[in-house]
Amino acid sequence: MALESYFTFLSDDDIRLQGTRIGIETILYAYIHQKQSAEAIAQTFPQLTLEQIYATILYYLQNRAKIEQYLTNWLNYCAEAERAQDENPPAIVLKLRELKAASLVGANG
Question: Is 0.70 topped by the overall pTM?
Fold first, then answer.
């Protein structure tokens, strides 16, 4: 079985585990940045097999430069999306902030 058969390549920046909506970045972030073992990751994602997780790690190890760039792009995208949401929060977030502020004033007043 070819290693690539474990994945669905939707685009250069969107690689998912075959038959799931889980991107390889999710598995690799846990493995690389959170120092989790494949077994620990499997407990967090019971819909994945240990084989799928090891295939993801092996794909990363065999394509390290390409996948490190993929992960860098993903982390940059996440940081930018978070910054944009902080600068322009949805209306519901603004309303919740108002309610929280009002409850704090009422509790202290």
Answer: yes
- Asked whether the beta carbons of 49 and 42 are under 8 A apart, the reply is yes
Which runs of E-coded beta strand occur in 6-94?
A: 7-11, 14-17
Q: Supply φ then ψ for residue 45, to 5 degrees.
A: -120, 75
Question: Rounded distance, CA 102 to CA 88, Å?
Answer: 21
Each residue of 35-45: pLDDT tens digit?
999 999 999 99
What is the number of other CB atoms lying within 10 angstroms of the CB of residue 15?
20
b/e sequence 75-88, b meaning 16+ C-beta within 10 Å? eeeeeeeeeeeeee
CA distance 40 to 33: 14
Q: How far is CA 89 from CA 76, 81, 85, in A?
A: 19, 11, 5
